[in-house]
TrEMBL record:
Protein name: Cytidine and deoxycytidylate deaminase domain
Coiled-coil ranges from the UniProt annotation: none
GO terms under biological process: purine nucleoside catabolic process
GO molecular function: guanosine deaminase activity; zinc ion binding
Keywords: Hydrolase, Metal-binding, Zinc
Family: Belongs to the cytidine and deoxycytidylate deaminase family.
Biased composition (Polar residues): 1-18
Tree of life domain: Eukaryota
DNA repair keyword on record: no
Pfam families in UniProt: dCMP_cyt_deam_1
InterPro entries: APOBEC/CMP_deaminase_Zn-bd, CMP_dCMP_dom
Domain CMP/dCMP-type deaminase: 37-149
Segments for region (Disordered): 1-20
Length: 190
């Protein structure tokens, strides 16, 4: 992605009107560009986890990273096949590991980066764990296209949890997140 080095004056002028999903490059701020770089970095890590999980036979192509105070706290992938556990989604594994590491049941100082839009179970867990922010890459449709259950799309876009949560949700437009599914297709069982 490109980073515009706009002046601080311009930054102040447009603050408050910065779009939450895709930056308009004409109005991109220094802060916004930096935040977007940061989001891309952590989301790329989540996508790498998705590949690792498939390569080592642990699970399906989904990865999740939890960031705490600007540092990666845990980096996990889907473990459904290894654990023989249909609930061992990357986000669930990451939330459990993060809670253990912090010795907390609330992750209110943490952000979760998911390679794909979280399913309803994971979105519920994200809500219950009080994560402050969710950034995801691929839309559910990219997973559904290779055979995953279309219920995935009901997580973030389902109405109940979404409206009850104070979570900031951001969809990053990164093609690498969508490509995971086509690139790993046939290398795991659904
Ligand atoms: Zn899930």
């Amino acid at each position: 992605m490109s980073c515009e080095n706009n002046s601080i004056t311009e930054t102040q002028k447009v603050s408050g009107s910065v779009p939450s999903v895709v930056p308009d490059q004409d109005h991109a701020t220094v802060e916004f560009a930096a935040a977007n770089d940061r989001d891309h970095k952590y989301l790329t890590q989540a996508v790498e986890e998705a590949y690792i999980g498939v390569e080592c036979g642990d699970g399906r192509p989904f990865g999740a990273v939890i960031v705490h105070k600007n540092e990666i706290l845990v980096s996990c992938h889907n473990m459904v096949l290894k654990y023989k556990d249909p609930t061992a989604h990357a986000e669930i594994i990451a939330i459990r590991e993060a809670c253990k590491k912090l010795n907390e049941i609330k992750l209110s100082e943490c952000e979760l980066y998911a390679s794909c839009e979280p399913c309803p179970m994971c979105f519920g867990a994200i809500h219950l764990s009080r994560l402050k922010r969710l950034v995801y890459g691929a839309k559910a449709e990219a997973a559904v296209a290779i055979g995953f259950n279309s219920i995935i799309a009901d997580g973030v876009r389902g109405i109940g949890c979404y409206h009850k949560s104070n979570l900031e949700i951001k969809k990053l437009d990164v093609s690498i997140a969508e490509q995971v599914f086509q690139n790993t297709k046939g290398k795991f069982s659904i």
